[in-house]
Design a protein that fits this description.
4-stranded mixed β-sheet, about 300 residues, mainly alpha, single chain, 15 helices, 4 strands
Amino acid sequence: MTDETGMLKTDPEFRRLIFPLSRKEYAALEDRILQDGCSHPVTVWYGYIIRGFEIYEICTMRHLAFEIKHINFRVREEVISMICREELSSRCLPESQRRYLIGKRHNADIVIGAHNAAGTDQFRERIRRELSKSKKLYESSAGLTKQRLAGEYHLSLCSVARYAAYARGIDHIASVKPEMADQILSGGRKASMETVIACCGTEEHEMIKRLTVSGENRNTKKSGGSEKEMITGTTIKDMPAFDPDAEINSLALTIPSWVRSIDRTRSTVKFSLLTSGGRDRLEQELYRLQEAAEMMARALKEVQ
């Protein structure tokens, strides 16, 4: 192995996009490498592994040679978009991981599309900051991206918007408790999409409380219902088969927590001390929230 192979790094965000191999798949890959050598390269972006994590792990542990393939994307968003696109097209994934990848691709493609529309150099941070203040370019890119992904993955526009919010929620959970985010994506920890979305921006204790309650509620339903249901003899079969307001009511319950988070932040943050990066990021997310709210309001008006 060369010095270069020993300097490769793992970025948690990139790693989270690649669903891990099962124990059986990992063992089969290890056997193939030991018998036939490493036939696939480890793909790298500026020293960070973006594909071939298990290959790298096996080869370094066994002191085996492997090939490195460099890609020359200029910004992280291009890397993220490529990984998501390839994973979604090549593997059968758990629904939680599939939603996450679609949402991550949406969020990355919006940034890429806005820069392309402006004809700016994505690699220059100064221009990136200026572009983020251009609401029209950002909103135009967001709308086109949402329509494109909705068609590609056979989803409604609202579903794409929810997956994008879900991805931001997972990323926030991962920034506080990485193991909890991994458990949700793998299906080891049950959490509804609404719960994950509502966790975005919350403090650690509030986030853990939401995820714990969500998991307990799901376990209660799975075990056969509440104590009250057992006493009255009511079972799942006795419940209505379809509630047309279920999704809307769930969303309505989460919005107040977003409002409280915004109010709390506005009253505690010293805006004069904010960095340009933090300010621009929040501004972009507020644009996304505004767009999603306007789309929902229009959908409600259309059926009145």
